[in-house]
Write a structure and sequence with these properties.
This protein has about 180 residues and is of the alpha/beta class. It is about 20% helix and about 35% strand. It is built from 3 helices and 10 strands, in the order ββαβαβββαββββ. The protein has helices at about 20-35, 50-60, 110-120, and strands spanning about 5, 10-15, 40-45, 65-75, 80-90, 100-105, 125-135, 145-150, 155-160, 175. A 6-stranded mixed sheet has the order 5-4-3-6-7-8, with helices on both faces. Helix 1 packs across helix 2. The radius of gyration is 16 Å and the shape is globular. The model has no long low-confidence stretch (mean pLDDT about 95). Bound molecules: inosinic acid (IMP) and magnesium ion (MG).
């Protein structure tokens, strides 16, 4: 039984439990395994939020792969600042590689619009996107998620890698901001 949690000044209620997350990640892993037979995809996780999803997803993929991380930043508190910065980038060549970018959540899509263009410019063989969550109502950029965990309403969520000002990333389940 999960309970409400508080972080800083906000209260969050249970939203997606860890069993449901695990089942969905297993399905996505199977799909990626099937789609990349005989390839060696380059999996690029977007830090910090995607670190939990990447670690579960790559262990659900039975295909030879490489795993890298980049760090971008667009958020402060519970609203987007509208600015993306690359804090650190990729160390490996992307040219000719089958790339799978992995995110925790696609909100406005601004972060991925920026990053996917950056990846495309480096001439990969292909680029697909995996994201644990998508907020369709918040989407402002033409982002297509190839491997999606769950569509969620346009409300702030935490847990499973997602933070509220640095907290909650370690929660194994996903929680939603409580209506006051
Ligand atoms: P976008 O650029 O607006 O799509 O925002 C993407 C980034 O903002 C994600 O990678 C998250 O780090 C963060 N973000 C968006 N929505 C949430 C949320 O509900 N909770 C926590 N972080 C979020
Ligand atoms: Mg993120």
């Amino acid at each position: 039984m999960q309970h409400e949690i508080t972080a800083h000044d906000l209260t969050f209620v249970p939203f997606i439990d860890k069993e449901k997350i695990a089942a969905r990640v297993a399905e996505l892993g199977k799909q990626i395994t099937k789609d990349y037979q005989g390839e060696r995809p380059l999996i690029i996780g977007v830090l910090n939020g995607a670190f939990v999803f990447v670690s579960d997803l790559v262990r659900a993929c039975e295909v030879e792969c490489e795993v890298e991380f980049v760090r971008l930043k667009s958020y402060s508190g519970t609203s987007s600042t509208g600015e993306i910065r690359t804090i650190f980038g990729m160390n490996v060549p992307v040219e000719g590689r089958h790339v799978i970018v992995v995110e925790d959540i696609v909100d406005s899509g601004r972060t991925l619009d920026y990053f996917l263009k950056d990846v495309q410019a480096k001439n990969p063989a292909s680029v697909r996107l995996a994201s644990m969550l998508l907020k369709p109502e918040a989407l402002k950029f033409p982002i297509k998620v190839d491997y999606l965990g769950f569509e969620v309403p346009n409300k702030f969520v935490v847990g499973y890698g997602l933070d509220y000002d640095g907290l909650c990333r370690n929660l194994p389940a996903i929680y939603q901001l409580k209506k006051e």
